[in-house]
Amino acid sequence: MYAGGLIVFYVAAVAAFHPALGDEDALASGLFLGVMLAPTVGALLAYFFGPGVIQMGRPSRWILAGFAPTLVVFLATVLASATGLVDLHPDKLLAVAVALVPLSLYGSIFGLGEEIGWRGFMWPLLRGRYTFLKSSAITFVVWWAYHAPLVMLGWYGFGWGLPAFTVGLVGLVLFAGVVTDRSRSVWPSTVAHGSWNAFVASYFSTNGEIHDGLFSGSRVLLGEFGWLATGSMFLLGIVATWWHFRQPENRRPTR
């Protein structure tokens, strides 16, 4: 029920808006909402018409951990600017700092459309049956398959950025799994998702074509398809997973 609802709604959104191939502004249209709501639609169908359970959890201090991916990417990009790999525009620092929390929360509204399905439904289901690493591997495959068609059709990012995006996605799946296990809620991963979309994918960077951002330089390095962000996210996911294993909890999430 979950997979069927997700796929049907996803395909319906693409069919309804059918942007031109290679149109990088496609996700600014209704396609954006349709695609981001697909996991939640699947989860709700499984909840109302099947045995599915959605675990939202309660907000806690773990929400602060949701800002970690964006902050780690920021620090990595600042270090890269010190070596001359990219350019930092200090005059934009204050604006970005002021907007960090409000724009992250705004982005989280849209991120929740995915996170209810991923971390609210699918992750607890998997963790009730499998280990952390096996659950992460399955989540990665599903999440990658969800994004890859949009990338390859040129509607999300750019095709040759897919390898870097894949590396970053590994880290994001691991990190989101850790904070979801620890918080027993979808809220930290929702903030991470919203903050990433609001800043890493937008205000942090520009290649001269996308946005007048805090950093400028090569598209190979900047943005959510750039190696600075994806490499940083991968390392954060590895470190978070190592810590998670080193600091075991007495409880395990169950379905």
Description:
There is one protein chain. The protein has 255 residues and is mainly alpha-helical. The chain has one domain (56-246). It has helices at 2-17, 30-49, 68-82, 93-127, 132-152, 162-183, 187-203, 227-246; strands at 87-88, 205-206, 215-216. Helix 1 (2-17) runs antiparallel to helix 2, helix 3 runs parallel beside helix 7 and helix 4 crosses helix 7. The longest helix is centred in the middle third of the chain and has 35 residues, at 93-127. The model has no long low-confidence stretch (mean pLDDT 87). Residues 103-199 form the CAAX prenyl protease 2/Lysostaphin resistance protein A-like domain.
Percent of residues in beta strands? under 5%
Mean pLDDT across residues: 87
Largest sheet: 3 strands, mixed
Radius of gyration: 18 Å
Helix % is: 55-70%
Overall outline: globular
- SSE pattern, N- to C-terminal: HHHEHHHHEEH
Number of helices: 8
Give the low-pLDDT segments: none
Helix-and-strand structural type: mainly alpha
Q: Care to count the β-strands?
A: 3
Query: Termini distance?
Result: 17 Å
Number of domains: 1
**Strands of the largest sheet, in order across it?**
1-3-2
